[in-house]
Amino acid sequence: MTYKLRDYQQEAVDACLEYLSNNEGNPLIVAPTGAGKSLIIAALFKEMIKYDGMRAMMVTHVKELIEQNYSKVKSLCPEYSFGIYSAGLGKRDATKNITFASIQSVYKRAKEFGAINLIIIDEAHLLSPEQTTRYQVFINALREINPRLRIVGLTATPYRTKEGMIIGKGLFDDVCYQIEIPRLIAGGYLAPLISKGGVKEADMSGVKITAGDYNEKQMSDVFRQSDFEHGCIEDILKYGQTRKSWLLFCCDLQHAKDIQSMLLARDISCGYIDGKMSKAAREKVINDFKTGVIKALCNVGVLTTGFDHPYIDMVVLLRATVSTTLYVQMCGRGMRVADGKDNCLILDFGMNIVRHGAIDNIVIKKKEFRAVDDNSEYEIKKQPLVKCPQCHEHHHPRSRICPYCGYQYPTNIEEKASEAAILSADEKPRVIDVQDVIYARHTKVGSPDSMRVTYVPTNLMERAVSEWVCLEHTGYAGQRARLWWNNRSEFDLPPALIDEALERASELRKPLEIEVNKKGKYDEIIGYLFETEDV
Asked: What residues are paired with 527 via a beta bridge?
């Protein structure tokens, strides 16, 4: 069987190859769950292995990913020799052109492989910057053999809860290509998500944070309260009536068994899986789920990565998490497309959607201010939601009327400072009253300077919005900048330099309002309202 790359997959491959040719660092490709990372890996291997003496590896921690990637690369590159090195798969082959390996099996065995030129790491966000981890030990040993070893990472979530963005910390230097979720949904490559909160939602206020996430036992105690569990089951049955394949994320083994028993008692075929099950038992449950023998599958921290079942059309979050990575990975299980599947429902009992916001709109930003002892340069910007008390849909905090059921909020309810939805494509433009406009120089390495224009809202609960006017640029950006200036100034000739623009900023008209929409991760100004001039 042969595979043809989609347009964005080819773009990712081309961008990665260009980066490797022109830079010394190690690039990262950001590709959402369901984007087809296996094909990107296969195409990278096909291009790189053409060079004489080239040897490459794909390393990951999940045997399912080893099997998936091995199958697709072998189909795309039948002319090359392939090996698998994984104790879990019962194979230890270190002599081929391309080897697919589990880090658990190889991290102490670098010498068996000899000189490796390229390593591709799937689920790269799992790599810690610490030098004592298995990945770092293995890579450092390979570099002793070949100091020119190059590394390419792929992940859907290029950040870690404690460290923030993984770029510049440890192995990876830059994002060479990012595939955006809205593009994949618009192209029919991913299924849209819709969301509902449960009638009952877990109160996590008394649960401690342990090792970067909610304490498992304390969280389980909250979710396993009898009335709470029964309320969750009623919601699951209600919203799952028209859903064919349910994946449930539970707090711990006992919680999973509770939910399984309660669903079985309501005539819903349900299995459960956890990391302590035998290989044979685990594979049987997964196969029963994929073939429709069981409708629902409860899992405990297992099926967040490397699990491919496109027909999942309801993901139930019966746990809470402060980890944005885990949240995105759980929701991503339902985004694969399948025949007869229009969308996937995210049914959330842990207020995760309220906590983290739209999964395609989680922004990694450099911190403007850092404490002296804070070495983290980046932070994750989230955009929380609210849940309608009548229909339980998630929507923008500023909506006075629920867009789904028409519920009208009391007028004394304070508006919140953010807007988002489970997918940012669901977001509606918002209008911001402008109190003031601030003009400043903006410098970016490798590009001409621009003028940053920041609109300060009258309502201080609103966030400020900025745009960049590129007067010193050539081409289309420069043309747009001059048009922008002429629309605000009565003088015919716009400034050519930023210094002049800042000196002349007082001649610019200030808008009364701006209309703002989401474009990927950022706010985009799509309209201005100026005071009407007398004729």
From this structure: 515
